[in-house]
Amino acid sequence: MSSSNPPPPQCSSSSSPCLLSSLPQQSPYKFPTHRLKKTQTDASKTPLVLVACGSFSPVTYLHLRMFEMAVDHVRQNTEFEVVGGYLSPVSDKYVKPGLLSSDHRVNMCNLATEETSSWLMVDPWEAFQAEYQRTAVVLDHFNHEINEVFGGVVTQDGEKRTVRIMLLAGSDLIATMSEPGVWAPEDLEHILGRYGVFIVERAGTDVAAATDSLARWRHNIYLIPQMIHNDVSSTKVRLFLRRGLSVRYLMPACVIEYIEEHGLYLEEHEPRGRPPPEPTPPNPDANLNLNPHSTSIPIHQQQQQQPPTDRSQSIPFEESTTQS
Ligand SMILES: Nc1ncnc2c1ncn2[C@@H]1O[C@H](COP(=O)(O)OP(=O)(O)OP(=O)(O)O)[C@@H](O)[C@H]1O
Ligand SMILES: NC(=O)c1ccc[n+]([C@@H]2O[C@H](COP(=O)(O)O)[C@@H](O)[C@H]2O)c1
């Protein structure tokens, strides 16, 4: 593994101390487990770790909110118990406009999680790989670290349990799973068949359309409605920063201070590295319409299957709050 030495996170705020001393060290690499629950609270449930893969350039409150939405959804609608949550920033080899160096992205994610959360962690493994790592490989890495190295979790009676690893993603990312050439068919089988995904609804993406071609993995797909619609994105934050506009309350203050201190995002960045996945042959099933209104797609969220055209009306607040 290639692991560069990131500059230590800097945060000069006197009003909001940034817990710099408690930030996990990034080099040499050690899988972070300091907030991973070792003992399950409810033995009748399946222990679950949520993993969000992304650019996080920069990390915003919406990235962090995804996890909170997921935990609520898991508690109210599933038989899982969340025992940990990880952000996994993509490596510098991923070609995407505005992708800042992994050093800075990992530092910002660490500041955000350590400052604002009691359970989220940042795993820098993917970020510091010399080559781009596909999401299927990243999930395997988490499974290895949590179940083989860490040893899974135990119940209060001392019984050892294997932790289920699942991807946490916005519906825009899941929509790309139906685009030819973006995801290898065997990777989709691995990610959705073996692991599974929690999908957070995102404005601008038709969730039903995004999951149509994924119906065969419906038992492993959970849809999470956004009850308070909020479309903060890293792209918009970068645009605001370039224009000298305030980004306060869109992301943790500590991350804003880090950006200001390092003079980040003042210019538009060209994509770095090379394209992420090698183009793969289109998934032969990707464009099959497997009955868009099937009752078989996520049993857990069937009422979210047919969003009206107007996204702001797609999940009436009252209906959403009574979903469980
Ligand atoms: N507002 C949001 N609602 C739901 N999901 C989101 C939101 N913002 C980000 N995500 C999800 O977070 C994950 C990481 O996303 P990423 O780092 O690419 O952020 P982004 O804001 O989409 O970035 P960019 O604007 O640079 O494309 C993805 O699964 C993405 O779908
Ligand atoms: N084939 C793949 O494994 C594949 C394809 C597209 C995106 N991704 C991942 O999705 C995440 C978010 O990507 P975007 O920022 O491009 O939406 C990244 O972590 C990226 O690695 C993986």
TrEMBL record:
Keyword list (alphabetical) reads: ATP-binding, NAD, Nucleotide-binding, Nucleotidyltransferase, Nucleus, Phosphoprotein, Pyridine nucleotide biosynthesis, Transferase
Cytidyltransferase-like domain: from which residue to which, for each copy? 51-238
Note whether Transferase occurs among the keywords: yes
Membrane spanning residue stretches: none
Instruction: Give its E.C. classification number.
Output: 2.7.7.1, 2.7.7.18
List all Polar residues biased stretches: 307-324
Annotated catalysed reactions: nicotinate beta-D-ribonucleotide + ATP + H(+) = deamido-NAD(+) + diphosphate; beta-nicotinamide D-ribonucleotide + ATP + H(+) = diphosphate + NAD(+)
Indicate where this protein resides in the cell: Nucleus
Keyword Kinase assigned = no
- InterPro entries linked: Cyt_trans-like (IPR004821), Euk_NMN_adenylyltrnsfrase (IPR051182), NadD/NMNAT (IPR005248), NMNAT_euk (IPR045094), Rossmann-like_a/b/a_fold (IPR014729)
Q: Which Gene3D superfamilies match?
A: HUPs (3.40.50.620)
What is a biological process (GO) this protein takes part in?
A: NAD+ biosynthetic process
Q: Which GO terms describe its cellular component?
A: nucleus
Tell me a Gene Ontology molecular-function term this record carries.
nicotinate-nucleotide adenylyltransferase activity
Q: Where is this region: Disordered?
A: 268-324
Please name the pathway. Cofactor biosynthesis; NAD(+) biosynthesis; NAD(+) from nicotinamide D-ribonucleotide: step 1/1; Cofactor biosynthesis; NAD(+) biosynthesis; deamido-NAD(+) from nicotinate D-ribonucleotide: step 1/1
- Family to which the UniProt record says this protein belongs: Belongs to the eukaryotic NMN adenylyltransferase family.
Q: What is this protein called?
A: Nicotinamide-nucleotide adenylyltransferase
